[in-house]
From TrEMBL:
<feature type="domain" description="GFO/IDH/MocA-like oxidoreductase">
    <location>
        <begin position="163"/>
        <end position="307"/>
    </location>
</feature>
<dbReference type="InterPro" id="IPR000683">
    <property type="entry name" value="Gfo/Idh/MocA-like_OxRdtase_N"/>
</dbReference>
<dbReference type="InterPro" id="IPR036291">
    <property type="entry name" value="NAD(P)-bd_dom_sf"/>
</dbReference>
<dbReference type="InterPro" id="IPR050463">
    <property type="entry name" value="Gfo/Idh/MocA_oxidrdct_glycsds"/>
</dbReference>
<dbReference type="InterPro" id="IPR055170">
    <property type="entry name" value="GFO_IDH_MocA-like_dom"/>
</dbReference>
<dbReference type="Pfam" id="PF22725">
    <property type="entry name" value="GFO_IDH_MocA_C3"/>
</dbReference>
<feature type="domain" description="Gfo/Idh/MocA-like oxidoreductase N-terminal">
    <location>
        <begin position="24"/>
        <end position="142"/>
    </location>
</feature>
<feature type="compositionally biased region" description="Low complexity">
    <location>
        <begin position="1"/>
        <end position="17"/>
    </location>
</feature>
<feature type="region of interest" description="Disordered">
    <location>
        <begin position="1"/>
        <end position="20"/>
    </location>
</feature>
<dbReference type="Pfam" id="PF01408">
    <property type="entry name" value="GFO_IDH_MocA"/>
</dbReference>
<keyword id="KW-0560">Oxidoreductase</keyword>
<protein>
    <submittedName>
        <fullName>Dehydrogenase</fullName>
    </submittedName>
</protein>
Length: 409
């Protein structure tokens, strides 16, 4: 049957900023947690930053007609579709933004690139290395035709992590010795929390590893400026059966129905890694860190200094400059809210601070610039593939009781 085309007339009337700029018309697949975050990013980017093209929220897509119509209305999308193929076929869509669970990333991204659209895809890029390889190949071919592809590792766009990258690239830490990263959440501590899609391998690909580990692997490689060469890993599933979910999930909250099902992903992943430069890295990704809500923590130690960051205090970056006289050297807090800091010249006066949602605004800003300038955006699908290879090596190593597993190039 022909897909249902849904009218959303009120949203279409929302005036867009920067009307003198050529539009970049977005079509988004998915409208849940990430869909809402990305909508906010697209809606806000042109209102805060002076962009070369004007993001237009052209159409949003989801399978449930009522829910997608409501999402279009709430988030300001001009039209709604119930079939992603129909969204991709629209000639008023220039860029397809994929905010679905990982099992559909490859199919949608490959179709969108083949149809001549730019693509933004949520992390992790795919559920398997084979899918990610196909996506990276398609992105290379699309680039030859002037189409771009980016993966949504949004934590590169926290001003403090972008500043950390700048400081590492400037050589302030000298040779890196340690990259220590963890991503700690606790929304699975309760064994009565239901078996949502994030706990099913066929939908999510993996558990904490792909969901949280993917972020910290990307950040570690981005900050160090080089890929990981190999890993040794342990993974564990602490609660193996959970109640079946009943009704829709909202963010990370969900309700239970009768019956139970088997958890088919990891609950936690711990691994060490080695960079070709000789630096050592450690990683911990878990949803069982009782009391830790969204604690992505990192510390870099180099011969001339160290940097430390915690996402739960995301306006702060801690810096120890080891070249200062020992008597008064020590970690000091940089409040990353100055106009000289990444992204901050467009935001609030010093000290007023940003939050989680702003990473999606910055992501939209960076992609609009890349499209307008015909420049390959970062993180690219090749970067997403590299992360996928690390995740696969972690799983392989964990299956072999932590045997060191090189990462295939
Ligand atoms: C849930 O663990 C989640 O929403 C992840 O899926 C996101 O990628 C992370 O940024 C926040 O936590």
């Amino acid at each position: 049957p022909a897909p249902e085309r849904l009218a959303v007339p009120e949203a279409a009337a929302v005036p867009e900023p920067g009307t003198d700029k050529p539009p970049l018309r977005i079509g988004m697949v998915g409208y849940a947690f990430m869909g809402a975050a990305h909508s906010q990013g697209w809606r806000t980017a042109g209102r805060v930053f002076d962009l070369p093209r004007r993001p237009v929220l052209a159409a949003i897509c989801g399978r449930d007609a009522d829910a997608v119509r409501a999402a279009a209305d709430r988030h300001g999308w001009a039209a709604a579709e119930t079939d992603w193929r129909a969204l991709i076929a629209r000639d008023d869509v220039d860029l397809v933004d994929i905010c679905t669970p990982g099992d559909s990333h490859a199919e949608i991204a490959l179709a969108a690139l083949a149809a001549g659209k730019h693509v933004l895809c949520e992390k992790p890029l795919a559920n398997t290395v084979v899918e990610a390889e196909a996506m990276a190949r398609a992105a290379d071919a699309a680039y030859e035709r002037g189409r771009l592809a980016m993966v949504g590792f949004n934590y590169r766009r926290v001003p403090a992590t972008a500043l950390a990258r700048r400081m590492v690239a400037e050589g302030r830490l000298g040779t890196l010795r340690h990259v220590r990263v963890s991503y700690l959440q606790d929304w699975l501590v309760d064994p009565a929390f239901p078996l949502t899609w994030r706990l099913r391998k066929e939908l999510a690909g993996s558990g904490s590893l792909g969901d949280l580990g993917a972020h910290i692997v990307d950040l570690a490689q981005y900050l160090a400026g080089e890929p990981l060469a190999g890993v040794s890993a342990l993974t564990e599933t602490f609660v193996r059966r959970r109640p079946l979910p009943g009704g829709p999930t909202s963010g990370l909250a969900a309700v239970s129905a009768d019956g139970t099902g088997t958890v088919t992903v990891d609950d936690a992943a711990l691994f060490t890694g080695r960079f070709a430069s000789g630096a050592l890295a450690s990683f911990e990704a878990t949803r069982y860190a009782t009391g830790r809500k969204n604690a992505l923590r990192l510390e870099l130690n180099g011969e001339h200094g160290s940097l430390a960051f915690d996402l739960e205090r995301l306006n702060e970056l801690w810096y120890h400059d080891a070249t200062e006289p020992r008597a008064h050297a020590g970690f000091r807090r940089i409040l990353v809210t100055e106009p000289e800091h990444p992204y901050l010249d467009a935001w609030w006066p010093p000290g007023h601070g940003l939050g989680y949602e702003h990473t999606f605004v910055h992501q939209a800003r960076d992609l609009v610039h890349a499209v307008a300038e015909g420049r390959r955006p970062e993180p690219s699908f090749a970067d997403g593939l590299q992360v996928q290879r690390v995740l696969a090596a972690v799983e392989e190593s964990a299956e072999k009781n932590s045997v060191y597993t090189p990462i295939a190039a």
